[in-house]
Specification:
32% of the residues lie in helices and 24% in strands. By secondary structure, it is an alpha/beta fold. It has a single domain, classed as Maf protein (Alpha-Beta Complex). Strand 1, helix 1 and strand 2 form a beta-alpha-beta unit. The longest helix has 16 residues. The structure holds inosinic acid. The site of inosinic acid has 15 residues, from strand 3 and helix 3.
Amino acid sequence: MRRGGDVVRFVTNNEHKYKEASDILGAYNIKLEWVPLPVDEIQSEYLEDIVVSKVVSAIEVVDPPFIVEDTGLFIHALNGFPGVYASYVYKKLGLPSILKLLEKTRNRKACFIAVGALVIDSHIFKIFRGEVYGEIAREMRGSQGFGYDPIFIPEGYDKTMAEMDREEKNRVSHRGRLFTQIGEYLAGKNIV
Ligand code: IMP
């Protein structure tokens, strides 16, 4: 059965991502519906390729307008690792192992990149990208957020994203920037 209606949908298994995105689009009076469907994704070193594969998979079962998103964490001293494999590495190694890998490393620079596709109808979609630069902390700090938040300190801050509430994280994060662009776009085009 296809899903329909006049809201924008966010196809993601991750409730944290949904809540962050929902707060941002809410500020544009856009109602975001959570569609917690698993969508197939290809293996690629480019977030854009992964996102397009999610569009192809989701379009079969979800009515537009909808959004799919994928995030990578790129650590400079590790040549961009874990990058697009961030999810796999998080599950298999976890944060303590990442910290261990960087134990003797002074260059802590890293960035989160989120790429999202807004599927407007069955023929048109638009890609957006949000980035945040920062550093990998020396230890895990904070209990809010999810994933790599306890070890990521955004540039200009001395706390991790897990030490921020959702509103503060949204002001600085890759996803905050991504969904702000989507909100601006949707509001400007009167799509919903
Ligand atoms: P994916 O986009 O769900 O594939 O996310 C890749 C990995 O990065 C997963 O382990 C997520 O938990 C993690 N991740 C995605 N977004 C964030 C974020 O905003 N903060 C911290 N970790 C994140």
